[in-house]
Amino acid sequence: MAIVSFDGTVRHAGTGLCELLGTPETDLVGQPFDEVVAGGIMPDPDVMDDMIKGRHRTARYRADVELANGRPWVGDVAASIIDDEVHLHLFRGGRPQRISEHQTAPDGSVLLAIDQMRIGIAIVGLDGKAHAVNDAMCELSGYSEEELMSGMDLRDLTHPDDLDDDLQLAIRLSTGELNSYTTEKRLRRPDGETVWIRQEVTVDRDNQGHIAQFIAQIVDITDRKRIEFELAASRAGYVQLIDRMPVGILSSDAKGEIVTANVAAATIAGLDEIPVGFRVDRIIHPDDLPDLAREINEHVEAGLDFHVEFRIMRPDGTCRWIRNDAHPSHDEDGAFTGLTGTWLDVTSIRAAETLLRHQAVEDQLTGLGNRRFLFDSLEQAVKAGEAGGPSPTVLFVDLDGFKAINDSGGHGVGDMVLIEVAVRIRDCISSTDLAARIGGDEFVICCTGESDDGTPWPERLADALIRSIAEPFVVDGRKVSIGASIGIADWHPGQAADDLVRDADQAVYQAKRDGRGCWRHA
């Protein structure tokens, strides 16, 4: 028996083969099989290719060769693939009947190199009884050769929980549906111990082509299975830990399809689960997707970790803001293989940021802009004017009679009046005008447009504001009346924003001196 790598290098030589060649194993291992044993014994290239690709896991053929020591050899060769190795079993004369080194079978055949094999071999009849076993099989099963050869049904060695699947495969092999099969199962030893094995079974046919017996190659994989079970248990614990985490944890492949996603990620997305193969781009807000895809691609190409924020659309129609911190993975050739990252629902943080931004530029009582908003906007308008854009005009609105209402009715009444004044201002201004409350009863409006009929818009707006504010207010069931005096200041090149507001404020005083309830130009 010999074990040979796919490139033809000897990895192991059995005792019988070494004696046949008259060469110790140490002189054979690592050498080309065709040179140190014989050419013509390895499967031909087409058969080898079929075996490697899994079309056939075994091959049986006749060989008539001259060994490396010059001796002729004629016999059968059984070749099989196990892991990344070719296992060659050499039978002089014909089909093996017993597995005992140099034992002559009834038909005169002699099996070479058998009991020193590293894998268990059992040749089994159609009735499940052993025709031959080797030492490795005895060691694996825990039974002696005499016990295994005494008429024991070898199927009884299989663990009851694995027997049905094993028998189904054997039936398919017997009917010709399969040429061979490989399975992993448990064997029960007489000492009560259970061992895991990998078993590869092929058929041995007589001269008429009928199945005469089965040849089983058996490898002890108990240690490997123990490691697999430990890894599975570790993975299960890891998965449970991940699923208990409040942060979404996901991984995706190079095509953007989900490989893993924990419970938190599904909850954020409003789903019961995020299945394998799910594409996250299906739920990303369409307005965010183009820029997001571009940004991710840039980081992937650079091989850099990144964080991005985007919106996802949930099945219930709601929208959530997600912060995604991710790491791109690449293989040894530099090809992108996927992303691993976390999802954090930052919707409430986004809402708070929006609120803070509004509070920074918004008058909390009226909802109009505040002083900061006004001067930021005016400075932008002045810059636009300097660049040749429309020139801004400022209307400074000061309420007439408000102090008396505030003093008599209290701040609550005064606040309600100010809120209603803000509503009326919004109703009067155009879509391009900006309005702000900069003091107790002082409002400023910035205009950059004209009237539809070509008349100066600031003057028309001032007239509309005076009329609207003069209409009585109903507060707590009683009517109150106030008025408005307005100063108008047009911007001139070189004039700063605060100078423009100051000029409009001075014009208000002129309007009040002229009787209130009117507007005056600076």
Description:
This protein is α+β, with helices and mostly antiparallel strands and 522 residues long. It has three domains: 2-224, Beta-Lactamase, CATH 3.30.450; 245-350, Beta-Lactamase (2-Layer Sandwich); 362-521, 2-Layer Sandwich (Alpha-Beta Plaits), CATH 3.30.70. Helix content is 35%, strand content 29%. It has helices spanning 15-21, 25-28, 33-36, 45-52, 135-141, 145-148, 160-174, 222-244, 263-269, 289-302, 347-361, 371-386, 402-409, 411-428, 457-470, 497-513; strands at 2-5, 10-13, 58-66, 72-82, 85-92, 110-111, 120-124, 130-133, 180-188, 194-205, 211-220, 248-253, 258-261, 306-313, 319-330, 336-345, 393-400, 434-437, 442-447, 473-475, 478-480, 483-490, 519-521. Strands 1, 2, 3, 4, 5 and 6 form a six-stranded antiparallel beta sheet that branches. Strands 8-7-11-10-9 form a five-stranded antiparallel beta sheet, with helices on both faces. The chain has a five-stranded antiparallel beta sheet with strand order 13-12-16-15-14, with helices on both faces. β18 (434-437) and β19 (442-447) form a beta hairpin. Mean pLDDT is 86; it is low at 93-117.
